[in-house]
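We close this part of the discussion by returning to an individual protein. The sequence in question and its structure tokens are set out directly beneath this paragraph:
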Amino acid sequence: MTDKLTVSVLGTGIMGAAMARNLLRAGHTVRAWNRTRAKAEPLAADGAHVAGTPAEAVEGADVVLTMLHDGAAALDVMREAAPALRSGAAWVQSTTAGIEAIDDLTAFAREHGLVFFDAPVLGTRQPAEAGQLLVLAAGPSEHRAAVIPVFDAVGARTVWTGEDGAAGSATRLKLVANSWVIAATAAAGEVLALAQALGVDPQSFFDAIGGGPLDMGYLRAKSALILDDRLSPAQFAVGTAAKDARLIVQAGERNGLRLDVAAASAERLERAAAQGHADEDMAAAYFASFDPADRPSA
């Protein structure tokens, strides 16, 4: 197979649009679709064919890449695309879909003769735009040549977790990683909220932990978004993080675990979304510590 592919990108939000641009830069043909067409239209200036329907987007595609809100959305869109899907095409499923959705997604792939790759990514807006995502992937070795050029275009590194995408090993690793990201972000927001309530200058906290084992670049990065009022455009939106947190809680429950931090983080993110912060960076969960009427000036 040639290294230059026709790739259908279904879902051109923060991550999907960045991935589509990097595929174009790598010389691939990109056919893009998004439910809200206005989010896909800017890709035309980069050379993408912006399709009006999922079926139009997947016409002639060697690889179909889905980057949608959740597993249900991915399945619905693929059903819309079904009449034009080519048997034998690779389906790179990069949506953070959760474990329970994997069976339905892989059943669809089998029904339509698609080679299924479970391939969520780690990273936010900036690494996505730079083509520096970490791709977590599972799928058959004999078909990987069809998708490696895609992974090379969007990511700095690919970690293969298994031979069978249906086993969901990549999705499982993504949920473990996101559980840490979400917990760390929630903790950063609470630290700043508590500092404000107690009249403590946040910088004095950073000075106290600076250079020691409690210091962390991620803490400083997320705190800076809050303190400098740079929550838009989002690196990883509150609404998406809330969905992922719920998937993590469900995965724990499915395996007999009670994940108290993940559950509390989901509630904080959902509360922040209800206060109007759904499209801001997930660091905006900070505001969930306050009554909306007393919204602070970070």
